[in-house]
Fold:
Amino acid sequence: MNKPTVHIVHHVDTEGPMCEPLDELFERIQNTLGYPINLAPSKENLQLLQSQDYVFVNAEVDQLLKKLIDSKLLNFKNTWEEVDEMLDRILVPAYRNKFEDSFGKGWIYNWHLLDHVGFETNPRYRILGYSGIFNLYKTKLEKLNIQQDALQWHFHPIPFNKAAHTSAISYMNSAYELQQVMCRRLIDHNWFPVVNRAGFHTVRPDINWWLEQWLPFDASNQAMITDNTGFNDNINGRFGDWRGAPDDWSLYNPDLYDWRKKGTLKRTISRCLNMNTRFRNIDNNELSRAFKLAETSGKDVYVGITNHDFREMSVEIESFYELLKKVAANYKNVNFAFSDTITAFRNAIGFTEKEVVDNNLEFKLELNGDTLKIQVINGELFGAQPFIGLLTKDGRYLTDNFNWGEPGSQSYFYTFDFLTIPLENITTIAVASNDKYGNTCIRRIDL
Ligand SMILES: [Zn+2]
Structure:
């Protein structure tokens, strides 16, 4: 019998450097814990708060405080140069091969690239702009000739105050920027996302429905057996609400109305726990449960782990690897592999290589006069329609719905005229879709 494999899938919420000035940090502590700090923001006062014998509120709150301001969690990469220096260390084969999976292969990263867009204030000095961080990573990986890593999707909805460090939860409130990110990555980089990592670990109905149109895989479930984080900023399921979702490392398809419930949507959701943050962390017990599931089911299991590129990732990777070696040693009949997210989803769902290849989505574009026709010629779309991105001669990026062909024909139409935009104003048409196996088809016409 073939041994099942636990796929270790490292999802990096890739957001570039981040600064946190002391006054910002003190404000964050107050907001997160829900108690005022009657101390001026200073290095000395931070050390005071961090010291074990300082009493802030009571034993319970003080324990949360110590977790929140653990010096390891505050050690941010402040500039791109600092992130870049880390990447030079952790991307090279010599580093990756320090970690060896059951197949003799080294560490793999899945970079979920964020565009900081739609913001008006930026107190933490994040890299702003469309494809800003995307370009830096793409160039870096190309320069080092890295093939094994994946580039995937991460998006932060835009808050009412339009500050780049404020968490928000509505894709609908961010519709313009969302479509711009999609269009620009498709047209400028020939790129289309397959796997989601939810911004702030958070899904809501509009996000659930948006994802269901385009992305077949979603590594966002943070359900825990007991999800009582104690932090004021997380009460009543405020962020990362996965209560009721499977907490046993099984994959599931979400419900139309409640992303946490098993349902009939096509997207597959995996579990993904934090590496050394203040809550929902991967630990011995959780990792053992994954190996146990592989052992008892005889099937591959998806283990997502996540952190940020604005912290020293090597520390978190190395401590996780120690844990992994310890746990894996107890399960001689289970392999583990460092995997890219798409391969891991395919194996954990149980798709065969043959069906993934045979059904590989393919469609063609035909331009007849001012009408564009998309015809699927192999496989099926994952979502309801393909995604269209248009670049106009005056530099605008646009998207729209298609007109649909005859029922069952797998064809879609778009008319360029005075009701939409005349064809003579267009320089590029790009159309993309995934299939349910995570294959992507992108076709374009440059005029
Ligand atoms: Zn994020």
